[in-house]
Amino acid sequence: MTTIQPEGESLRKAVQWISEEKKAGSTRTHQQLLEAACLKFNLNPMEAEYLARSFKETSP
């Protein structure tokens, strides 16, 4: 079984970090997590857009 994984190492780390933060019950909003990940992992605009699409907010 294959999984879709982003190409860049920093993007992979950002995806993992956001997932871990959500599992840990972070009090940050969805947008705050995305912004923090972009800064923490120095993502370029394309990577930031991929990240935003990958973690679309599902709750109202």
UniProtKB/TrEMBL annotation:
It comes from the Bacteria. This is Uncharacterized protein.
